[in-house]
Amino acid sequence: MDASEMAELRTLYIFGPAEGASWGLTYEGLEAKLRERNPDSFVRIDEEDGSPVRGSVMLFGITLGGETFEGMAGLSPEGVAIRDCTALAAAETVKWLRGSVVPGGAGITFNTRWGLEADLPDALVPDVPRPRLVATFFAHIEATGGLD
């Protein structure tokens, strides 16, 4: 599969803090950052029945590279996920997380739905230019074995 075909592949990308760390994520703080990008952003907090944690899932819309994606955030485990996301949009998500959500110097890990299904561990997102970050996501997709 060539790079242009890989660029079209979509899956769930999951981003979280490095092991043992926290971003101090709150739904209110994340909503504020989303509304800084777009005051009309879709944001909804859903409670899961029987959950001891109020507001256990935050759903939102975010525009990345001119396309709108559905996202989810959680506080436990802490993180943000983007549905039906391309590797390029995932790189845009990392750029936004680093610039607006994640405290300076804090690490970001990632995985994908395919990576979880293949039992791949979360990987640290390297602090590299966007083309190299996209290549990192491509390598992850190849490692899932789902392209054979």
Q: What report would you give on this structure?
A:
This protein has a seven-stranded antiparallel sheet with strand order 2-3-4-5-1-6-7. Helices cover 34% and strands 29% of the residues. Helix 3 packs across helix 5. It is α+β, with helices and mostly antiparallel strands and 148 residues long. The protein is built from five helices and seven strands, in the order H-E-H-E-E-E-E-H-E-H-E-H.
Provide tags for this entry.
single chain; 148 residues; alpha+beta; seven-stranded antiparallel sheet; 5 helices; 7 strands; globular
Give a concise summary.
The protein has 148 residues and is α+β, with helices and mostly antiparallel strands. The chain is 34% helix and 29% strand. The protein contains five helices and seven strands; from the N terminus they run αβαββββαβαβα.
Distance between the termini: 9 Å
Report the principal-axis shape: globular
Order of strands in the sheet with the most strands? 2-3-4-5-1-6-7
Which structural category do the helix and sheet elements fall into? Answer: alpha+beta
What is the percentage of strand-forming residues? 25-35%
Number of strands: 7
The percentage helix is 25-40%
Whole-angstrom Rg: 15 Å
Unreliable sequence segments: none
Biggest sheet details: 7 strands, antiparallel
Average pLDDT score = 91
Series of secondary-structure elements, N-terminal to C-terminal: HEHEEEEHEHEH
Helices and strands, with pairings:
Blueprint: H1 3-8, E1 11-17, H2 27-37, E2 43-46, E3 57-64, E4 67-75, E5 78-85, H3 87-101, E6 108-112, H4 113-117, E7 123-124, H5 130-143
Antiparallel strand pairs: 1-5, 1-6, 2-3, 3-4, 4-5, 6-7
Helix pairs in contact: 3-5
